[in-house]
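User: New here, any thoughts?
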Amino acid sequence: MKNIISNINKAFDHRIRLGIMSVLMVNEFADFNTLKELLGATDGNIASHTKALEKQKYIKVEKSFINRKPNTRYLATEKGKKAFQEHLDALEKLLSKDISIEKKKK
């Protein structure tokens, strides 16, 4: 049997990374605190998972100051958008496959 999960992108395995990319696919950008609040994650979770996505060049990080306070915001790159869409397509394909073990036995 062909490996039915071969097109699933390992970069999106973790729920926090999946959440970050989901937020960035439907928004132009999101800042650190927004991601933290939306995903119910800790500072460390957001920091480590955004670093992992940035390392893959799936997101871009912009740092600035707003009223003298540091602000970090994240944007999905074209590469990231493409990779995430391919990941979603692979999941949809997986879900639509007839992979029932019971059906195979009959």
In short: The first strand starts at residue 30 and ends at 31. The chain has five helices and three strands.
